[in-house]
Amino acid sequence: MRSRIALVLIGVCVLSLIVSGCGTGGQAPAASKGPVITYNTPEQWANWGAVLKAFTAKTGIQAPSDPKNSGQTLAALEAEAAKPQADAAYFGIVFGIQAAQKDLIAPYKPAVFSQIPDNLKDPDGKWMTIHQGAIAFLVNTDQLKGAPVPKSWKDLLDPQYSGKVGFLDPTQAAVGYSVVVAGNLALGGTLDNFDPGMQYFAQLKKNGLSLPAQTATAMVQQGEIPILIDADFNGYKLEYIDQAHIQVVIPSEGSIAIPYVISLVKNAPHPELGKQLIDFVLSDEGQRLFTESYLRPVRSQVQIDPKIAQQMAPASDYARLIPVDFAKMNSVQSAVVNRWKSEVVK
Asked: Is 207 a member of any domain?
């Protein structure tokens, strides 16, 4: 009798496996299709739209984009720490460092981890750079009303550019904070001395500086912000892909590189999907997709297409990039933001 009952139970379980799964094993196929939830992956930023689409085509895992910036992503991860909603998060490097310090992200080392330079990754794999850009002026030449294209930080203080300059709010966005650091270093400051930068940006604010919170590339294309200080790759995309009249300028006094990193979220709802996404963005295919939007891949094994490289500013312009201690840049961010609030946007 017991044998007959056992056979019936086995049969029921087999039927359940066929229909909807029996136990955790039956749930795996559905989970593997996602979606994988990422934070800070806007479709128009860094070619994320194409990257996520290619990831889905390759894996079958749905991967919706997300419009947050780095600061909003960090805030969301903190708010959701008890019950995380995201599987992976993308940040400017200083925000990735902060997320690790706040214990919001988990270690993961993809197969190509050793190919990422040591200064561009956490040794435990809590964050790792996937690509880099540089702070530059993105100039809508149709909206200058006869004024020359500015070539330097100091040029932007000229009254002829009043109300024409903007960049993302440095208290919220990684690229905005990078602009403040770049301007400060280019004008003689250091990571221990932000006096030149604060004095400069206070003057720029008086000249009508705009500080939007969200990705602002559409605003420069439409002429709302004729001179956007932002990532160079956004300007190249506007110029060569969107066919806008945009000129990318690496300022004559200097600028800085802006690495962007990715992390696996701690206690993510679907960590295996987050890992697959990280594997993909660091694969040859993922890295090349980012280069199509004029980013420089973190893996030297992946080269930028020569046709794309020719459209970018010459190597001599990028030679003006000032080396940065990103850990130090992170450690002073809070103090810089406080000074910004009291001295620039008071």
From this structure: yes
